[in-house]
Amino acid sequence: MTDFEGRVAIVTGAASGIGAAVARDLAARGAKLVIADFDAAHAGTIAKDIGDAARPFQLDVADPAAVEAMVAFAVSEFGGLHLAVNNAGIGGAPAPVADIRLEDWRRVIDVDLNSVFFCMKYQIPAMLKSGGGSIVNMASILGAVGWGGSAAYVTSKHALLGLTKTAAIDYAAQGIRVNAVGPGFISTPALQENMTDAAIAGLAEKHLLNRLGTPEEVAALTSFLLSDRASFMTGTYYPVDGGYLAR
Ligand code: NAI
Q1: In 3D, which of 140, 242, 144 has the Cα closest to residue 181?
Q2: Fewer CB atoms inside 10 A, N or C side of the chain?
Q3: Is 244 a catalytic residue?
Q4: 1 falls in which pLDDT band (50, 70, 90)?
Q5: 149-187 pLDDT, tens per residue?
Q6: Is 186 near ligand 1, meaning CB less than 6 Å away?
């Protein structure tokens, strides 16, 4: 499994859930990588588990200066940048549109949408210097359909698809592919800790496969899109959703 031998990656939100699974998969396939997360303690644990190929980096992805420093850190630690998974995200407090507090709206848009622009703004020049690259932005099935009480999240994930398409257009000729992945509901710590068993069963039923997905199932698609095996794939949104969007 050497798809990523000699490649350097950044995974944001890599201290937990989907990001941690992606980080482990990339490392297993030969990448060197930065485990970037707000949560320094868990980022350190994941990096230590992976070993010498991984370095933790603490940041708030909503802070453009911190994102710039994250990219500089990857380049100084490993000598370049070829792969990025812009995955850090938050759900936000549930509320119908008219009841969303302004600061909650702004924070979700900052963490889930603006951060991905900041990431690509600094990742792309580093990738161009490294001879090209591949980026996956973590959207959601809620990039394609709505979900009551989550307008800021749904708006961010829909907008990510436009950002992804446009970045793909802007950099295709220079050897950078950009895609978005749209997970269905995935069994991650955030979801398990905040929901009852009955609520999880209700969510599972919304997927044709009648279960939640696993972080490893999202990681498998993400790694494929990052790899040279996906060399004709750019500017598109790929659900990994157990059939959620089929009905
Ligand atoms: P998670 O909560 O398990 O992990 C998210 C990670 O991002 C955490 O380690 C957290 O510390 C980090 N993070 C949050 N805000 C940050 C910030 N401002 N700066 C830096 N790091 C920050 O979440 P999960 O479930 O693994 O989600 C990862 C991505 O996948 C998110 O973008 C989420 O919207 C998306 N997604 C998740 C689904 C699910 O059902 N779990 C479904 C569809 C999409």
Answers
A1: 140
A2: C
A3: no
A4: low
A5: 999 999 999 999 999 999 999 999 999 999 999 999 999
A6: yes
DSSP 76-128: HHHS---EEEE--------B-GGG--HHHHHHHHIIIIIHHHHHHHHHHHHHH
CA of 4 to the centre of ligand 1 (A): 24
- Residue 162's contacts (CB-CB under 8 Å, 6 or more residues apart) are none
Distance CA 159, CA 167 (A): 12
pLDDT band at 27 (very low <50, low <70, confident <90, very high): very high
Q: Which domains does the chain have, with CATH numbers?
A: 8-238 (3.40.50.720)
